Automatic annotation (TrEMBL), chain A:
<feature type="transmembrane region" description="Helical">
    <location>
        <begin position="20"/>
        <end position="46"/>
    </location>
</feature>
<keyword id="KW-1133">Transmembrane helix</keyword>
<keyword id="KW-0472">Membrane</keyword>
<keyword id="KW-0812">Transmembrane</keyword>
<protein>
    <submittedName>
        <fullName>Uncharacterized protein</fullName>
    </submittedName>
</protein>
<feature type="transmembrane region" description="Helical">
    <location>
        <begin position="58"/>
        <end position="78"/>
    </location>
</feature>
<feature type="transmembrane region" description="Helical">
    <location>
        <begin position="111"/>
        <end position="131"/>
    </location>
</feature>
Automatic annotation (TrEMBL), chain B:
<keyword id="KW-0349">Heme</keyword>
<feature type="transmembrane region" description="Helical">
    <location>
        <begin position="608"/>
        <end position="628"/>
    </location>
</feature>
<feature type="transmembrane region" description="Helical">
    <location>
        <begin position="815"/>
        <end position="834"/>
    </location>
</feature>
<feature type="transmembrane region" description="Helical">
    <location>
        <begin position="672"/>
        <end position="688"/>
    </location>
</feature>
<feature type="transmembrane region" description="Helical">
    <location>
        <begin position="290"/>
        <end position="310"/>
    </location>
</feature>
<feature type="transmembrane region" description="Helical">
    <location>
        <begin position="432"/>
        <end position="451"/>
    </location>
</feature>
<feature type="transmembrane region" description="Helical">
    <location>
        <begin position="264"/>
        <end position="283"/>
    </location>
</feature>
<feature type="transmembrane region" description="Helical">
    <location>
        <begin position="322"/>
        <end position="347"/>
    </location>
</feature>
<keyword id="KW-0408">Iron</keyword>
Length: 135, 838
């Protein structure tokens, strides 16, 4: 059987494996951060009630976790900015049929997604900053 | 080579072969067709029919509410009507309509001959039709569900009669069809693009299909898991939502809205996708900010999953939790806004022609913006506490639904009608339709903001005259009839016979995307030859493309074996890697759908034996269909196809190169999500309930459970090993492993079952034993399916359908078993270990 064609799929996928992962990373960090914030709050509020010390700890922990998540997203953003390589050719259309355009498009894509995820994480963590009780 | 003219005789011969291969069956065998153009048409018309039914219910609701103290409808009937109105609009119209239109259009956008699994779309369509008629007709018999389209327990669990069962089983059935179509669409976008159409050149519509398909895959399964628990409670009194016995109605709300909020975007994004096709054509230039739109679509897809609790602001959750959701709800406005700005920018830099589709798009923009503003208002928790469950919400919801879905959809119908039928809709009637809908819509729903703020609650069947709501309600009711008139005019124009009307020009809007290379008059082959694509708007940017396609100068210009074929390409760069034989007309999909329907419908009447029989026949017909039509080994010497332009492609493919493997992988993502929702339920009970697990209760028996898990993991290892040694050509070892695998799986499933059944765990007593049982059942249903598949591979190996070179079935079953193995281990930990350490 024509082996070359079969392997073509695996070859291109592994060639872009990094950038494909990168596209999902920023959004996934947002999702994990969201679930952790929600889950931890639900667990603390349900199991420990209005215990002020516990809530303070929770807020500190989530605050720290938020910084971590933001750093992670910023890192992804920076990596994809490099891959997009905007300042090199000022290209934000990627409308041509070359390998380079596909590669830069994937970088551009994950760059924009990290911006949205970054904002998303900030929005989600605002309540942790301002609210002091479960109720 | 491209420029070299093709010999006329060869050209005609190719065309004749293609015509013969792709012809639609005539007479009453017409309904065996599986081609995307037929299935898509039937699907869309059925969804439109259900929409009209739901619309009539909406009108009847408005008649009842037109004047105070009205007794046109009884309270119970009113409840049935608004429940069915909402449910039908969401499940029988909005989502199926997206899938119908995508099935209809996608191959056109991609220059493909058909979808990768035509019989799967046919099966999905028939399931949808059967389920839809079943659910919808319950209204006629006065036994429709009556607890609101979200079916909150305890109201819905306690509801008399079989309304709730009809909702749960009928709609689960339809959800299965929706997921099938989503899988088909995703694989279609990933693997059936024309050569050269790299991921950065895909039409935006394809991107939206990808995003929405993915959302369906992650949003519907939690609802299916919820339906599963809910129906167990209704049928067998397992107390998942009964607080008396440790259950919690809130779990349903969570599962429902984890589905329900993304659902809103699942409805909204495909319509934006239509706009993304109409706008560049109207502006006669490429869209501005392609990457931005793609990203906003993906971003909206992600963020919309974080919003479900904003439907639960008034349920007494901790306010810090509410805060997360309120904030996330505001955040999702950003990507939505980006998409709209990109459209506006494109229109501003282009030379806009105000065509009829554009008129509908502008109407959509106006209405949606208004709906978005009220949305921002209700997403603020304190405002929501005021407006919750008043007509303000009804107004908001219809503004977003009409602006975000109905109007863009209408634009799409006017825009794509010449592509679908080769004729045009009437321009004059179109303008009348637009104004009737636009004016009627605002007359109906604008006053509802006021009635809502004046305190009129949702879902009341009548109201006293003293409240000052009378006039506003009357205006709303009159408006509803104007909307209805608009739809009637539209339906007449849509359905009237067009025999004598002249054909539309081939590319009437002068658009740039590939679907407008279609043949007028109709040919069923999709494209005459599959082109090589190097730009986003090939019809504008690639010279002579259409002429060359017509002359058959590109790929697959003929069908020497009279077999239906399409090209399969790589996911990222669309390099051709296979010439896929797709399936043709058949009865088997209808048989499978009818019996699948039986398996879902009989349980609503608590008739279990016929349901089990139907389930069995359905499984048998699916096996027959797979055995006779998928992964067929080509004859010797015919396993490579000359696709033209000196491209030689294999006919058979397995593993990641094949479409089947991707189909399994994507289906299993959805399946794993449903299972994760069950596990979420388990954890949820633990956080929400102090007595979970109840003190002194028994747990699933560890010894049996551990052995069962071990046997099932061993079964997974055997099938995995079988795939590898089979590839090395060790036929005897392969068969031994293929015999061992199902035996191990059966033993393991038995032990798994006994670990729960032998313990003193009565599922009707408390929610803890009930959820342990549910997780166990879920798991062994999957291992049972796995056994069937392993036997299928064994049979394949024995009868020569699976050989060392042709091992697609083994790849797919192994992939399924990767997921089963994961499920088994997680299930073992959840019911065996977790309760002991909680
Ligand atoms: C002629 C057009 C329509 C009219 C007159 C109409 C009327 C109504 C009314 C009066 C209600 C409130 C029932 C109540 O709370 O008492 C309602 C609810 C609803 N409508 Fe519509 N509607 C129309 C179109 C649509 C469309 C196109 C969709 C979706 C695509 C839709 C989805 C819903 C949903 C989800 C509900 C909530 C049902 C519930 O509370 O359980 N409607 N509609
Ligand atoms: Cu929502």
């Amino acid at each position: 059987m024509a082996k070359t064609e079969q392997d073509e799929e695996r070859r291109t996928l592994s060639e872009e494996a990094d950038s494909l992962w990168m596209i999902t990373f920023a959004g996934s960090i947002w999702a994990v951060h969201f679930v952790v914030c929600y889950g931890a709050t639900a667990a603390v509020c349900a199991k420990l009630g209005g215990d002020a010390a516990a809530i303070m700890t929770l807020r500190l922990a989530l605050g720290g976790f938020t910084l971590l998540a933001l750093a992670g997203i910023a890192f992804v953003g920076w990596r994809s900015w490099v891959q997009w390589d905007f300042l090199n050719d000022w290209n934000y259309e990627h409308a041509l049929a070359g390998k380079e355009h596909r590669h830069e498009f994937l970088g551009h894509a994950s760059f924009l997604l990290s911006i949205i995820s970054f904002i998303g994480v900030i929005y989600v963590s605002l309540p942790v900053l301002v609210l002091e009780t479960c109720q | 080579m491209l420029a070299a003219p093709v010999d006329k005789e060869a050209r005609d011969r190719g065309a004749e072969q293609l015509r013969e291969t792709w012809k639609t069956p005539k007479g009453f065998r017409y309904c065996t067709a599986v081609n995307n153009s037929e299935i898509g048409k039937w699907y869309a018309l059925s969804a439109f029919f259900f929409m009209m039914c739901a619309g009539v219910l909406g009108l009847l609701i408005r008649v009842q509410l037109a004047v105070p103290d009205n007794d046109f409808l009884s309270a119970d009937r009113f409840n049935q009507f608004f429940t069915m109105h909402g449910s039908a609009m969401m499940f029988l119209f909005a989502v199926p309509m997206f899938e119908a239109i995508s099935i209809l259009l996608l191959p056109g956008f991609l220059g493909a001959r058909d979808m990768p699994f035509p019989r799967l779309s046919a099966y999905g369509f028939w399931c949808f039709l059967i389920g839809g008629i079943f659910v919808m007709s319950s209204v006629l018999f006065g036994v429709a569900p009556n607890s609101g389209w979200f079916m909150y327990p305890p109201l819905a669990t306690e509801a008399e009669g079989m309304g709730s069962d009809i909702w749960l089983l009928g709609l689960s059935f339809i959800e299965v069809a929706s997921i099938a179509a989503a899988v088909e669409l995703i694989v279609g976008v990933l693997k059936c693009r024309p050569p050269g159409m790299r991921i950065n050149l895909m039409p935006l519509y394809a991107w939206y299909v990808l995003v929405v398909g993915g959302m369906i895959l992650f949003a519907f399964p939690p609802l299916i898991a919820g339906d599963f628990l809910f129906e167990l409670q209704r049928s067998f009194d397992w107390p998942f939502f009964d607080p008396e016995r440790g259950g919690d109605p809130m779990l349903w709300q969570h599962l429902f809205w984890i589905f329900g909020h993304p659902e809103v975007y699942i409805i909204f994004l495909p319509s934006i996708a239509i706009a993304a096709m109409v706008v560049p054509t109207a502006a006669q230039r490429p869209i501005v900010g392609y990457s931005w739109i793609v990203l906003s679509a993906v971003g909206t897809g992600f963020l919309s999953f974080g919003l479900w609790v904003h439907h639960m602001f008034t349920t007494g959750l901790p306010s810090m939790s509410l805060g997360f959701f309120s904030a996330a709800s505001e955040a999702v406005v950003i990507p939505t806004g980006i998409q709209l700005f990109a459209f506006v920018a494109t229109l501003m830099v282009g030379r806009v022609k105000m065509s009829l589709p554009m008129l509908f798009i502008s109407g959509a923009l106006a209405i949606f913006t208004a709906g978005g503003l009220t949305g921002v208002m209700v997403a603020l928790a304190p405002f929501d506490w005021q407006a919750h469950d008043t007509y303000f919400v009804v107004a908001h919801l219809h503004y977003t639904l009409f602006g975000g879905m109905v109007f863009p959809l209408m634009a799409g119908v006017y825009y794509f009608f010449p592509f679908i039928t080769k004729k045009t809709l009437s321009k004059r009637a179109g303008r009348i339709v637009f104004w009737l809908l636009f004016v009627g819509f605002n007359v109906t729903f604008l006053p509802m903001h006021l009635t809502g703020l004046m305190g009129m609650p949702r879902r009341v069947y009548t109201y006293p005259s003293v409240m000052g709501w009378d006039l506003l309600n009357l205006i709303s009711s009159v408006g509803a009839f104007i909307v209805a008139a608009g739809f009637v005019v539209f339906a007449i124009d849509l359905l009237r016979p067009r025999g004598r009307q002249p054909f539309a020009p081939r590319n009437p809007w002068n658009a740039g995307t590939l679907e407008w290379s279609h043949d007028v008059p109709e040919e069923n082959w999709g494209v005459r030859s599959v082109p090589y694509i190097t730009s986003r708007y090939p019809l504008w940017e690639q010279e002579n493309l259409v002429e060359r396609m017509d002359e058959g100068r590109f790929y697959l210009p003929d069908a020497p074996e009279l077999k239906r074929e399409t090209l399969v390409t790589t996911v990222l760069d669309a390099k051709p890697i296979q010439c896929l034989r797709v399936t043709g007309p058949t009865w088997i999909t209808i048989v499978a759908a009818v019996f699948t329907g039986g398996a879902f419908i009989f349980p609503t009447f608590h008739w279990y034996p016929p349901a089990i029989f139907c389930g069995g026949v359905a499984i048998a017909s699916v096996i027959y269909w797979l055995w006779t039509a998928t992964s067929q080994i080509p004859e010797k010497g015919k396993d490579v196809r000359d696709a033209g332009l000196s491209l030689k492609l294999p006919v058979y493919a397995s593993g990641p190169a094949s479409v089947g493997w991707w189909g399994v992988w994507i289906t299993m993502l959805g399946d794993a999500t449903a299972f994760a929702s069950l596990v979420f339920g388990f954890v949820f009970y633990w956080t929400a309930k102090p007595d979970f697990p109840p003190a002194g209760t028994e747990h699933a028996m560890l010894s049996y459970l551990a052995l069962g898990v071990a046997a099932l993991v061993a079964s997974w290892a055997s099938i995995y090993r079988a795939r590898i040694v089979n590839h090395q050509g060790k036929v005897a070892t392969t068969r031994t492993l293929l015999v061992a695998a199902p035996l191990l799986a059966i033993a393991g499933s038995g032990l798994f079952y006994l670990s729960v059944a032998n313990a003193d765990l009565d599922p009707t007593r408390h929610v803890y034993p009930a959820i342990v049982w549910a997780v166990m059942i879920w798991t062994i249903v999957h291992t049972g399916g796995g056994v069937i598949m392993q036997c299928y591979c064994l049979a394949g190996a024995v009868f020569g359908k699976v050989t060392p070179e042709h091992d697609a079935d083994l790849w797919n079953v192994t992939l399924y078993w990767h997921f089963v193995c994961l499920t088994v281990v997680v299930a073992g930990l959840t019911i065996g270990l977790m309760p002991r350490v909680m």
